[in-house]
Amino acid sequence: MQLFLTLLLLGLGASFVQAQASCSLTASGGDDSPQFLNAIRSCSTVSIPKTTILNIATRLNMTGLTNKHINLAGTIRFKPDIPYWTGNAFFFPFQSQVTFWIFGGKNLTLNGGGTLDGAGQLWYDTFATNSTLRRPIILTLFQATDVTVENIRMTNGPEWHNFVNEGTNINFNNITISAVSTSSHGAANTDGWNVYRSDNVVIQNSVITNGDDCVAFKPNATNVLVSNLNCTGSHGISVGSLGQFPGMFDIVQNVTARNIRMSNAQNGARIKAWAGPNVGSGIVKNVTFINFIESKVDHPIVIDQCYMTDATTCAQFPSNTFIQDIFFNTISGTGTSSVVATLSCSPDARCDNINVNNLNLTPPSGVAKYTCQNVQVFGNAAPLFGTCTKT
Ligand SMILES: *[C@@H]1O[C@H](CO)[C@@H](O)[C@H](O)[C@H]1NC(C)=O
Ligand SMILES: *[C@@H]1O[C@H](CO)[C@@H](O)[C@H](O)[C@H]1NC(C)=O
Ligand SMILES: *[C@@H]1O[C@H](CO)[C@@H](O)[C@H](O)[C@H]1NC(C)=O
Ligand SMILES: *[C@@H]1O[C@H](CO)[C@@H](O)[C@H](O)[C@H]1NC(C)=O
Ligand SMILES: *[C@@H]1O[C@H](CO)[C@@H](O)[C@H](O)[C@H]1NC(C)=O
Ligand SMILES: *[C@@H]1O[C@H](CO)[C@@H](O)[C@H](O)[C@H]1NC(C)=O
Ligand SMILES: *[C@@H]1O[C@H](CO)[C@@H](O)[C@H](O)[C@H]1NC(C)=O
Ligand SMILES: *[C@@H]1O[C@H](CO)[C@@H](O)[C@H](O)[C@H]1NC(C)=O
């Protein structure tokens, strides 16, 4: 009996269980999701050759994997079948996000020079007349450890391009993101990256053209390095918004964003935290923005600790998200209006050790204005801000 079982297991091992080293996929003409899902389960390397365009028409659950490599030289295109995705995209309670693809597990690599095509145009146009439409994120790393994503293009995500959700040791390198609408309806909410409940994340050497945050640090993004990015048309490198949800405690700590070129953007370096009644709490601690070159940026430097809250309400209900040990160092370039930097904190000492050094920001004309409220500003550029009113 025991011998029989062993032989049976050996037989299974040889024919089914043992992972094939490498598989190559070609387009089937129909939905390629089933073959892609089968391949990732049974092969350690899945290759999508240069001329192949995989048509992803049903959702991709690729969680709990170990030691997998997707060598994407061709294209993975997410079919813009809005009725299908409306009912079937994976849902995350955090900001009610949905996604085409969850990719998770341990020791995963996605590279190869190819493209993830979100086919976003139909989504942008449909969203313009239906603001309740939930548009899927292209790639969600979910519960993933030791991941490398590199040498990949991402085009026209319907919404965010990358969501790093409950990840550790995640490395993005040489990613080109382009979300550009060809109609009058913008590519709204097309963030480059959102980092959430994740630790040890690096995003570097990448070029992003999009219509919302270039990189956003959401609740519990810790030990994150963002380096050498060129962001165009975005809403900037943003911490937050944090402290929105009652009962939740949001941490963003040990974050560095360095060597950033920011052009034609709404914000450069930004931290935003909610105030008012019925919000959450948290801490933003040890965040450094260094070596930013900005061009035509509406708000080159921003702290807003009364986010979405008017001054009177903020005075009554100051933010419970404290902001400490923040550095804006060596930030130069041009704004689009006279105010080039705003450090606006809640009353009652909710910001501490806020530093500005080597700022060289110029408005389109006239004298640059630096504004601040309820904060003592440190660093060699502090005199630019004068004395901040306390309420
Ligand atoms: C994804 O598949 C795994 C099994 O492989 C399952 O446990 C999990 O619930 C699925 N996730 C979703 C969101 O459907
Ligand atoms: C990671 O996975 C790859 C296959 O993609 C494998 O070659 C490599 O040995 C794995 N590394 C570790 C540390 O297990
Ligand atoms: C808007 O999109 C939602 C979600 O997909 C859908 O349930 C609703 O029917 C759409 N509304 C209109 C007017 O098309
Ligand atoms: C970056 O990725 C692109 C593909 O998107 C590739 O063509 C290029 O060679 C990569 N650059 C480097 C330095 O590896
Ligand atoms: C960003 O643009 C600058 C100036 O054009 C260039 O030197 C740098 O290599 C670019 N960085 C990336 C990651 O493409
Ligand atoms: C963030 O981490 C802290 C400490 O582990 C935890 O108490 C809190 O619930 C987490 N917040 C979120 C939004 O996950
Ligand atoms: C601040 O964060 C950086 C990483 O961004 C880290 O290297 C440094 O040790 C942290 N400093 C403190 C005092 O925690
Ligand atoms: C931040 O970095 C410091 C210094 O390395 C470390 O002691 C601390 O645990 C880090 N904080 C988090 C939340 O990882």
TrEMBL record:
- Signal sequence range: 1-19
**A Pfam family assignment:** Glyco_hydro_28
Sample GO molecular function, one term: galacturan 1,4-alpha-galacturonidase activity
* UniProt keyword Methyltransferase, yes or no: no
Matching SMART domains:
PbH1
> Which GO BP terms sit in this record?
cell wall organization; pectin catabolic process
* Keywords assigned: Carbohydrate metabolism, Cell wall biogenesis/degradation, Disulfide bond, Glycoprotein, Glycosidase, Hydrolase, Polysaccharide degradation, Repeat, Secreted, Signal
Subcellular location field: Secreted
Alphabetized InterPro entries for the sequence: Glyco_hydro_28, PbH1, Pectin_lyas_fold, Pectin_lyase_fold/virulence
Q: State the name under which the record lists this protein.
A: galacturonan 1,4-alpha-galacturonidase
Species this chain originates from:
Collybia nuda
